[in-house]
């Protein structure tokens, strides 16, 4: 499978290389391209909630009554869960019909359908694979602009923080920005070309942690619409 290269990501040939290769020299996302056998759609449709997200554990996946092709798909996901669990990554398998939306009416919506980076207090990466449904997108850092750096958005956040036009850009405002994760959300420049992560591919993405040698990987979940196929993915 051919994956179009972006400036800050690289392709690897195996799970072992995905684990071992350092995120350095500007590379903040690694992809292991895979064409997976099995009927993941069968599994997704059996597990899908009417709305929202359901967490699927290994016992539930093993207990499903599946066709041979569905069982092959389930075994692939069980193997991915096992390998990531052995790395201490605490993987979670989700099946979802829709994502919660940030409908608070604030200048920045902080749901996962907004381009964003992940943050952690310790060295860690984000791992992601979509098995069925729409996949996530990655946005090259050079094609992104932090939303809080846009004067109109920052002024609106100051007003929301201070309650009036005289809100002060002080340490309290900085804490408000960080606690609400407004500083982790981005907009795409006009000529940006986001990259679809694709189905079956396993990704490892850089997180904003103290001392991280590369910029965090900017990504977003797909918009969920009525009538869409359920999305089946692993994330940690």
Description:
- α2 (40-47) crosses α4.
- The chain has 6 helices and 12 strands.
- It has a 7-stranded mixed sheet with strand order 1-2-10-5-12-4-3.
- It has helices spanning 15-20, 40-47, 58-63, 68-86, 151-162, 171-179; strands at 9-11, 29-32, 53-56, 92-96, 125-132, 137-139, 144-146, 186-188, 195-196, 202-206, 218-220, 231-235.
- It is 25% helix and 20% strand.
- The protein is globular.
- With 236 residues, it is of the alpha+beta class.
- It has one domain (9-145, 192-235): Jelly Rolls (Sandwich), CATH 2.60.120.
- It starts with 8 loop residues before the first strand and ends with a strand.
Gist of the model:
The protein has 236 residues and is an alpha+beta fold. The protein contains six helices and twelve strands. The chain has one domain (9-145, 192-235): Jelly Rolls.
């Amino acid at each position: 499978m051919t994956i179009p290269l972006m400036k800050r990501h690289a392709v690897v040939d195996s799970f072992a290389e995905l684990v071992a290769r350092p995120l350095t020299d500007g590379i903040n996302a690694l992809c292991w391209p895979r064409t997976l056998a099995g009927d993941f759609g069968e599994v997704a449709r059996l597990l899908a909630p009417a709305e929202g997200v359901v967490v699927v554990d290994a016992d539930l996946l093993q207990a499903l009554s599946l066709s041979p092709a569905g069982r092959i798909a389930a075994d692939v996901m069980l193997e991915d869960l096992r390998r990531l669990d052995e790395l201490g990554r605490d993987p979670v398998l989700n099946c979802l019909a829709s994502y919660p939306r940030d409908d608070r009416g604030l200048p920045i919506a902080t749901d996962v359908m907004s381009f964003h980076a992940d943050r952690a207090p310790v060295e860690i990466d984000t791992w992601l694979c979509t098995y069925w449904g729409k996949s996530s997108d990655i946005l090259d850092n050079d094609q992104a602009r932090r939303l809080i750096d846009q004067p109109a958005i920052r002024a609106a956040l100051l007003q929301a923080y201070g309650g009036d036009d005289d809100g002060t850009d002080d340490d309290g405002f900085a804490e408000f920005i960080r606690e609400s994760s407004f500083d982790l959300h981005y907009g795409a420049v006009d000529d940006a070309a986001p990259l679809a992560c694709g189905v079956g591919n396993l990704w490892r993405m850089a997180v904003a942690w103290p001392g991280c040698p590369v910029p965090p990987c900017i990504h977003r979940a797909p918009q969920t619409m009525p009538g869409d196929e359920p999305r089946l993915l692993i994330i940690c």
